[in-house]
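To: structure desk
From: M.T.
Subject: fold request, one chain
Message: Could you run this one when you get a chance? Sequence is below, nothing fancy, just the single chain.
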Amino acid sequence: MIFGKTKKMEEYNQLKSPISDIKRIEKLLPHREPMIMVDTLEYFSIKRGICRLSISENNIFVSNGFFSETGILEHMAQTAALHIGYKQSLNNIEAKEGFIGAIKSSEIISLPKLNDTLSTEIEVVYEITNMTMVKIKTSVGGKVIAMSEMNTILKE
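Reply: Done. Structure tokens follow.
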């Protein structure tokens, strides 16, 4: 995880405090319940972001006490989307609807359990107009459970 200052100005955490108010997250992310798969934006810099999700029993991706692979990938994509949404909000631009353009690679090492908290870090590899390529790592209790590289695309 990234906390504190790094050498480059664009790598400072630009949040004064984590964002966990669902109404604020809904303004930054074009999803609504029950499809919201992030509950806190913990870190934001131009190139990096960290989000959390506490897995509750009413989550639509929970089955037999585990959070599914599909849920993990959706959480990863929404972490990227929330990063983009917050970045746009800094320029007074409303959150735009988007989608996963491509998953270049993905590895699910283990499934998180009910009541686990996911911590997912994205790193922006590049941005071209409405497409962003990100590297993503999801952990539970400091142990990496999933990694992916994906392209997200915003609708115009």
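Reply (cont.): The two ends are 32 Å apart (CA to CA). Let me know if you need anything else for the meeting.
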